[in-house]
Amino acid sequence: MTTTSTAPLVPTFDDEAGAGRKLAIICSKGNLDMAYPGLILANAALGEGIETHLFFTFWGFDMINKSTMADLKFTMLGNTATHMPQGLGGIPGMTAMATHQMKKSIADVGVPEVPEFLQQIVDSGGHLWACRMSADMQHLEEGDLYDEVEAIISASDFIEKTDGAQLLFI
Predict the structure, then answer these.
(1) Sign of torsion, CA 39 114 95 145?
(2) For residue 12, is it left (φ>0), alpha (ψ between -120 and 50) or beta?
(3) Within 13 Å, how many C-alpha atoms sit on residue 46's CB side?
(4) Phi, psi torsion values for 118, nearest 5 degrees
(5) Structure pTM?
(6) What does the alpha-carbon distance between residue 52 and residue 125 come to, in Å, rounded to a whole number?
(7) pLDDT tens across the length of the chain (170 residues)
(8) What secondary structure does DSSP assign to the chain, as a single string?
(9) Contact at 8 Å (CB) between 64 and 80?
(10) What own/partner pairs with CB < 8 Å and gap ≥ 24 does 104-110 have?
């Protein structure tokens, strides 16, 4: 028995494809290797015309804290994906070496550093939000944060702003 379908085999890639879609990304980690997944996904979503919001909470605050955002670190300790003996991560200087190597690898593929990437996201229409509880816990105010953060808001406010969004927790 054969069936015929009227659905096209090739999807359409029109400008309206992302219309009405929302993506909410919760960035909860502030180490170098965990900063990039949220930024890359946000950038990709914006490129598809999807309304995109990033919410920085707990250690993710390091990504938007003016005093730490340009100096995120990568450590091998506890990261079995490095395929290196875990004991090496405890040797003095290993975090600095691993961070330098990761930054070089990221730059080699043309991906900007975190501050520049955040600016690119904002310039593309993305929204950056800081978590009120995390700001209070770390005794930080809006002046301590990256200038493009729109506001420090509660988790409830973020949920309201991103009603109907696809949610990613990183």
Answers:
(1) negative
(2) beta
(3) 21
(4) -60, -45
(5) 0.83
(6) 8
(7) 555 555 555 445 455 655 689 999 999 999 999 999 999 999 999 999 999 999 999 999 999 999 999 999 988 766 666 667 766 667 788 888 888 998 999 999 999 999 999 999 999 999 999 999 999 999 999 999 999 999 999 999 999 999 999 999 99
(8) ------S-SS----TTTTTT-EEEEEE---SHHHHHHHHHHHHHHHHTT-EEEEEE-GGGGGGTBTTTTT------TT-GGG-S-GGGGGSTTHHHHHHHHHHHHHHHTTPPPHHHHHHHHHHTT-EEEEEHHHHHHTT--GGGB-TT--EEE-HHHHHHHTTT-EEEE-
(9) no
(10) 106/36
Residue in this structure with the two tokens 């990183």, named with its chain if needed: 170
Q: Any idea how long the chain is? A: 170
Beta-bridge mates of residue 24: 53, 167
Q: What tokens does 88 get?
A: 């090496």
Structure-token match 């379908």, residue found? 5
Q: Per the structure block, which two tokens stand in for 120? A: 């690119």
